[in-house]
Amino acid sequence: MAGRRGRDGREEPDGLGELDARLVDCRACPRLVDWREEVARAKRAAFADQEYWGRPVPGFGPHDASLLVIGLAPAAHGANRTGRMFTGDRSGDVLYRALYDVGLASRPTAESLDDGLTLYGTRITSPVHCAPPANKPTPEERDTCRSWLVGELRLLAPRLRAVVVLGAFGWQAALPAFAEAGWTVPRPRPAFGHGARVTLDGGAAPLDLFGCFHVSQRNTFTGRLTPAMLRDVLRDAAAAAGPRPDGAADQAPGGDSS
Question: Taking the model in full, what pTM does it have?
Answer without folding.
Answer: 0.90
